[in-house]
TrEMBL record:
Catalytic EC class: hydrolase
Function: Catalyzes the conversion of a range of fructosamine 6-phosphates to glucose 6-phosphate and a free amino acid.
Protein name in UniProt: Fructosamine deglycase
Domain of life the protein comes from: Bacteria
Protein species of origin: Lactobacillus panisapium
Limits of the SIS domain: 9-149
Gene3D superfamilies: 1.10.10.2240, 3.40.50.12570, Glucose-6-phosphate isomerase like protein, domain 1 (3.40.50.10490)
Subunit structure and binding partners: Homooctamer.
EC number: 3.5.-.-
Keywords: Carbohydrate metabolism, Hydrolase
CDD domains assigned to the protein according to its UniProt record, in alphabetical order: SIS_1, SIS_GlmS_GlmD_2
């Protein structure tokens, strides 16, 4: 990741508008989910900036009041062509906001509409698959640092540096576990996906895109804090769950759900950030925000093994790219 680029963008925005009062995150599908860590960071670390996340067409059709020259809008689209996200980027600029766009595709329609482009990797390796969300978090960290100061800025920078190797080392070690996951869950019709904190977006992304879109397996997303307020009624022996356990402040919520699941002998796969040494690269002051990257990198291997076990490639679709909708 090119952090100098992130700094240059935020500094340029500040030179044009020193009174930013909100940062909005807009995208569709997995790209919206990848924006979640940035949104979560600002909503927890800023005392001044309002932060919100929208699926693009909600931003387009029910645009929040107060969006204008004091707003930064961060949009994202992996391929850069999703019409709703392209339209949101255009709309955000028409409203006079400062628009930064993350995309893998340099000359894509979304990049043509934006003011500040960030072109990220994806296919190179597993760490690259987390680059979009990492850039989004980096923008959020830099925005808070520039506009009000962030106490743990240097610790965050150290964590950014350590993440790519941590992810690549983690994925090398998970092969057998991922294979076991694929074999165990291959015939499931439903998999419940749980997490909390900054990784809630990873749970949503895994459930909605890796499982529902790419494997056609029903997959409710459940916040581990909310699990006890309804969803736990479905817990029973061998019911299939996937937990993304965080290392950080919300670990207590995840552990509480895990204990209850174990009590009823549910079938649980726990992708625990602690098992991959996240705390070796991220200090306790910033660790919460880096869980999504390790969870995403590791989950990709699990999804690949599930696809293999089910003989259902991750690229297979019934409707997407085939029908007009
Ligand atoms: O990130 P992009 O290119 O805008 O693509 C969004 C599309 O990709 C997915 O995130 C994953 O296929 C879909 O959910 C969504 O429709």
């Amino acid at each position: 990741m090119d952090f100098e680029k992130v700094k240059a963008i935020v500094s340029d925005i500040k030179s044009k508008q020193p009174n930013i009062d909100r940062v909005l995150f807009v995208g569709c599908g997995a790209s919206m989910a990848d924006l979640y860590p940035g949104y979560y960071f600002i909503s927890h670390e800023s005392t001044k900036l309002l932060s919100a996340i929208y699926t693009a067409n909600e931003f387009n059709y029910d645009t929040p009041k107060g969006v204008g020259e004091n707003t930064i809008v961060i949009t994202a689209s992996l391929g850069g062509t999703t019409p709703e996200s392209v339209a949101a980027t255009k709309k955000a600029r028409e409203l006079g906001t400062h628009v930064v766009t993350l995309s893998m595709a340099e000359d894509s329609p979304i990049i043509k509409e934006t003011e500040y482009k960030v072109v990220h990797g994806f296919h190179e390796n597993y760490a690259a698959k987390t680059e979009k969300m990492t850039y989004c978090l980096a923008l959020a960290v830099e925005i808070v640092q520039e506009f009000e100061g962030y106490e743990f800025y240097d610790e965050a920078l150290d964590a950014f540096k350590g993440m790519p190797d941590l992810i690549e080392n983690a994925v090398k070690s998970v092969g057998p576990m991922a294979k076991e996951f694929g074999e165990k869950y291959r015939d499931e019709k439903t998999i419940y996906v749980l997490s909390s904190g900054a990784s809630l977006g990873v749970a949503y992304s895994t459930a909605s895109f890796l499982f529902m879109e790419m494997q056609w397996i029903a997959a409710p997303t459940v916040h581990t804090g909310e699990y006890f307020h309804g969803p736990f009624e479905l817990t029973e022996k061998d019911a299939p769950y996937l937990l993304f356990m965080n290392d950080g402040k919300t670990r207590h919520l995840d552990a509480r759900a895990l204990t209850f699941l174990q009590r009823f002998d549910a079938q649980i796969t726990n992708i625990d950030a602690k098992d991959y040494g996240l705390n070796e690269v991220a200090s306790e002051n910033v660790i919460d925000y880096f869980n999504p990257m390790i969870h995403t990198g590791v989950m990709r291997v699990f999804a690949e093994e599930l696809a293999k076990a089910r003989k259902h490639p991750l690229t297979k679709r019934r409707y997407m790219w085939k029908l007009t909708y």
